[in-house]
Design a protein that fits this description.
The chain is of the alpha/beta class and 235 residues long. It has helices at residues 3-13, 50-61, 68-78, 82-88, 95-104, 111-128, 138-141, 156-167, 171-193, 214-228, and strands at residues 39-44, 64-66, 131-134, 147-153, 205-208.
């Protein structure tokens, strides 16, 4: 067993979730000293451009961008189809919903297992460093001082227009998708991580992409990363 596996197992041993009774001690913690290389987390509002910015940052730094791979790894560890995991990713559920779905669908992945595996994947990559982690409350799961934590935002109307432009939605559909996705992501963090994603001091840097191109936002994040972790700057 690798040193990373031992650290993750230790963290998960204190990840106590019993009969859906989540509390402030539910989030596993790993000794911050174990994080020897810095990482980046990027929270994003739907339509803000956060995902492509995250991939652009990772590409320029030569980091791994942990996004879809989270789904792949949870599917592999739980032996569920990727499509099943995608349907519950960053979404909240009630205990009744979990019971009903688990009875009707033998492939269903309950929320306890999903959050446990999600935490395991995020911590595993963060411990190794040189990774950009997209969303899923990763700024709350990882130690704040050991990574750069970014929030990508944009005005509501801008995000709706982008959904119309890039996804081909009519305005009503675009507004519905933006509102639903935003609510699900925020409630996911509140329900399972017991944190408020709207608190400004949860992030080192917030970028409003209304007036910043993808490459400009990318470069701002990279400069902030080197400001926080000057020892990580490439020679």
């Amino acid at each position: 067993m690798s040193v990373y596996s031992k650290l993750i197992d230790k963290a998960l041993n204190v990840f106590k979730i019993q009969e859906k009774n989540f509390n402030s001690s539910s989030i596993p913690s790993v000794d911050a000293a174990a994080f020897v290389r810095p990482f980046i987390t990027i929270a994003r509002e739907p339509g803000s451009g956060g995902r492509p910015i995250a991939h652009a940052v990772a590409s320029k730094l030569g980091f791994v961008c942990l996004d879809e791979q989270i789904i792949d790894e949870i599917a592999k560890s739980t032996k569920k189809r990727k499509a099943i995991v995608q349907t519950i990713d960053e979404k909240t559920r009630t205990q009744i919903e979990d019971i009903v779905h688990s009875v009707l669908n033998e492939e269903y992945l309950d929320d306890v297992k999903y959050v446990t595996e999600l935490t395991k994947v995020i911590l595993s990559y963060a411990l190794k460093g040189k990774v950009v982690i997209v969303g899923r409350g990763s700024n709350f799961i990882t130690p704040f001082a050991k990574g750069l934590h970014v929030d990508i935002t944009a005005p509501y109307e801008v995000r709706v227009q982008r959904a119309m432009q890039f996804e081909g939605f009519k305005r009503e559909k675009a507004a519905q998708v933006i509102a639903t996705t935003e609510k699900e992501r925020k409630n996911f963090v509140k329900q399972y991580l017991r944190q408020d994603p709207d608190k400004k001091n949860s992030y080192d840097l917030t970028i409003n992409t209304q007036f910043f191109r993808e490459d400009e936002a990318r470069d701002l994040i990279i400069e902030a990363f080197y400001q926080k972790f000057p020892y990580a700057r490439r020679k």
